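User: I'm new to structure prediction. If I give you an amino acid sequence, what do you actually give back? Let's try with this one:
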Amino acid sequence: MTVTVRPSDARGHANHGWLDSKHSFSFANYFDPQHMGYRALRVINEDVIEPGTGFGTHGHHDMEIITYIIRGTLEHKDSTGEHSLIRRGEVQRMSAGSGIRHSEYNASDSEDVKLLQIWLLPERADITPGYEQTLFADEAKRNRLCLLAAPGGRDGALTIHQDVALYASILDAGASVSLDLAPGRGAWVQVVDGGVTVNGRDLEAGDAIAIDGETLVSVVARTADAEVLVFDLA
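Assistant: Good question. You get back a string of structure tokens that encode the predicted 3D arrangement of the chain. For your 234 residues, that looks like this:
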């Protein structure tokens, strides 16, 4: 059994003025051979984008990209013709596959936008590029695990082209959720906000924990409105 905490203040950090980004795994100019990803999970960046700024048009391929908005509104355009606004509670899945180009901008001229950008390695190369966006209201996450993405898009989740199930939960103080892990699978828990205890380890906002060789993931909130993402990975 292995439980490894990834403290928030140990992450890579890049402040470009318009963008303040924290990297759980090696990304761009941040390289740490001990933190290259976890199973199929390759990137978790916590980004804060200043008003009226953003990422100009750029390309991706062979990656499943999930955008989880924490606050604010992000404007998205891509080469498949999609043009949308992504707000708090809405989650986007973009399959880069054989190649896609997109841009992402803070849609506000007065408020920043904070998000988690998540990259997962796909199950195969050259998937046809695709896009989905779904609202998962805070109420649907309250004191339960709400499925955001899964193979085949089961139970109203986004379709992810990898053997990964992604859940979100917002917990009242003292409330708990748990997830059974099948043999051979691992979990990554990312704390979005508040304080929680995960399998006996106390974590704060920005912290994460990798869990291997366990049969259960247990999350208990130590503060009100504690918010977590839970990945169940092959």
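You can read the tokens as a compact description of the fold. Here is one thing that stands out. The two ends are 16 Å apart (CA to CA).
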